[in-house]
Amino acid sequence: MKAIRLILILAVVLMGAVNAQAEKKGEKTITFNANLHCNSCKAKVEKNIPFEKGVKDLKIDMEKQTITVTFRGDKNNAENLRKAIEKLGIQIKDEAAKTAETCQKGCCTGEKK
Fold first, then answer.
1. Mean per-residue pLDDT, 44-49
2. Of 55, 87, 59, 58, whose CA–CA distance to 74 is shortest?
């Protein structure tokens, strides 16, 4: 009787683990190299990006100048997230290299440059 109970408990636990893995399969993670030069930029990203559709996790590393976003692939995509970050006035580094100005939107001073 104990063996049957143990087998049933293990089966339930394994089924739960399989369901958890199935849910995470649709998640994707992307890292943007961004031009984060002040805490104001970081705060804008932390305040707005988690509310984009499908975003599950957000990590910002000021030292490495990266924004890492985990999102559901069926709800959003990397290009939409990129546009959302750029809409906040944060430049993604590959585009930031094209211009010499680091703060075009005036996020640090509150004034447009």
1. 95
2. 55
